[in-house]
Amino acid sequence: MSVLVEFAMFPTDKGESVSAYVSRIIKMIDKSEVPYKLTPMGTVFETETMEEALDIINKAYKQLEKDCNRVYSVVKFDIRKGKSNRLVQKIQSVEKKLGKQVSK
Question: How many domains does the chain fold into?
């Protein structure tokens, strides 16, 4: 099974620049060894189970709860049985249809 998750999470009580807080979350994801991609508007990662995905989201919140009074988050899931490596394959599929060289 493949659970693709796109999410953004950041404090709303720490001013305009929150990259120091977001970087805590990215460090945690990096240590978890799940495949992920950081984007300008959020992060996409892939796990094999919903439990793993929810665990990452919970751990992300734990990175902020200790010193943030208000946290904003938006989370999207794409769950598909019988597939894996969709973090890469979905992009390759679109690029192939566009006639572009497929990224790796």
Answer: 1
DSSP assignments along 42-88, one per residue: EEEEEESSHHHHHHHHHHHHHHHHTT-S-EEEEEEEEEETT---HHH
Question: Which pLDDT tens digits describe the chain residue by residue (104 residues)?
Answer: 999 999 999 999 999 999 999 999 999 999 999 999 999 999 999 999 999 999 999 999 999 999 999 999 999 999 999 999 999 999 999 999 999 876 66
Entry pTM: 0.91
Element counts in the chain: helices (H) and strands (E): 3, 4
* Contact between residue 31 and residue 4 where contact means Cβ atoms under 8 Å apart: no
Report the chain's terminal Cα–Cα distance, integer Å: 21
CA 30 to chain centre: 11
Place of tokens 């060894």: 33
Range(s) of the domain holding residue 44: 2-97
User: Is 102 part of any domain?
Assistant: no
